[in-house]
Specification:
Distance between the termini: 49 Å
Strand content: 35-45%
Radius of gyration: 21 Å
CATH architecture of the largest domain: Sandwich
Number of domains: 2
Order of helices and strands: HEEEEEEEEEEHHHHHEEEEEEE
CATH topology of the largest domain: Jelly Rolls
Structural class: alpha+beta
CATH class of the largest domain: Mainly Beta
Number of strands: 17
Low-confidence stretches: 1-19
């Protein structure tokens, strides 16, 4: 009987450990001679807005994924300022979602944008018509300006942690939601103005703790990575704009949201002399409260 109880307890511990072994995903972003922007669930993850338009980047993005359907997108233009629709033959922008398996990164879903007869195309994206976890590629000139080319597809994942934001209520832009969210920005602004590190850490705690768990890090390290502590230490001061020029912009099918003006800028800016830096966390509406989620 004693041996049975010991075995049973060990089994429960093993089950608990196994249950916490969540799937993780990263991305690889590579560009050449294109100004390209990459998004997952409409959240900006990387870009090549540098001279020559050539970059290589990547990191873990598990915290912005949800079990089930997700969306990946690239928007890109050529580097010729006189004709940004024109692409050189060797120009490209690629976004790869990679699953971590047994310590290795395995290609999971991808988008490839490159040149076809001098113009942008997504035809070289693997499994263009969809296969397994990836849906068919959709492509065309971006409706916002008809210059940037937009390539997107959905992909399904499973086994990622149920992040707090994934349990939230979907939000849309309305006067009521705008006012409720703006109150959250006011609270954020006052914390920055008073340099209240403790309250700022609590403001971001949910997102920071989940990021720390995913990265096998600490809340303090994740907090430092936001750059806010350094800006405050360096003497940056916050500025809060009036809400009249802002609307609620949603991400991840409405589960993530924030305030933006028509140019995509947030209401809060950190200023030191001629230097400016914007702050705009992603929020979620969970259990009747607006929380800072990412």
């Amino acid at each position: 009987m004693k041996n049975f109880l010991i075995t049973f307890c060990l089994l429960l511990i093993s089950i608990d450990v196994f249950a916490m072994d969540f799937n993780k995903y990263g991305f690889e972003f590579r560009t050449k001679k294109t100004y390209c922007y990459a998004q997952v669930n409409n959240v900006d993850i990387s870009d090549s807005h540098v001279f020559g338009g050539t970059v290589s980047s990547g990191y873990d993005l598990s915290t912005i994924l949800q079990n089930g359907k997700n969306t990946m997108t690239i928007l890109f233009i050529g580097v010729d300022d006189n004709d940004q629709k024109k692409l050189e033959k060797d120009a490209y922008c690629t976004l790869l979602i990679k699953e971590k398996r047994n310590g290795k990164l395995i290609n999971y879903a991808s988008l490839v944008g490159d040149s076809l007869d001098g113009l942008a195309s997504g035809k070289n994206s693997p499994h263009y018509d969809g296969l397994g976890q990836t849906a068919k590629v959709n492509e065309g000139y971006w409706e916002e300006d008809n210059v940037a080319y937009k390539i997107t597809r959905t992909f399904n994942v499973s086994g990622v942690k149920e992040w707090t934001w994934t349990k939230g209520k979907k939000i849309s832009d309305s006067g009521k939601n705008r006012d409720l969210l703006y109150k959250k920005y006011i609270v954020f602004y006052k914390m920055l103005k008073e340099n209240n590190t403790k309250e700022l850490l609590d403001f971001f705690r949910i997102g920071l703790s989940e990021k720390a768990e995913n990265d096998n890090s600490t809340i303090e390290n994740e907090w430092k990575s936001l750059g806010i502590p350094q800006m405050l230490e360096d003497g940056y001061k916050p500025r809060l704009e009036n809400i009249k020029d802002y609307k609620v912009v949603t991400y991840a099918d409405g589960k993530l949201f924030r305030l933006e003006d028509e140019s995509g800028y947030p209401p809060i800016t950190m200023i030191k002399g001629k230097h400016e830096s914007v702050l705009n966390p992603y929020f979620a509406y969970v259990d009747g409260k607006i929380i800072s989620a990412l």
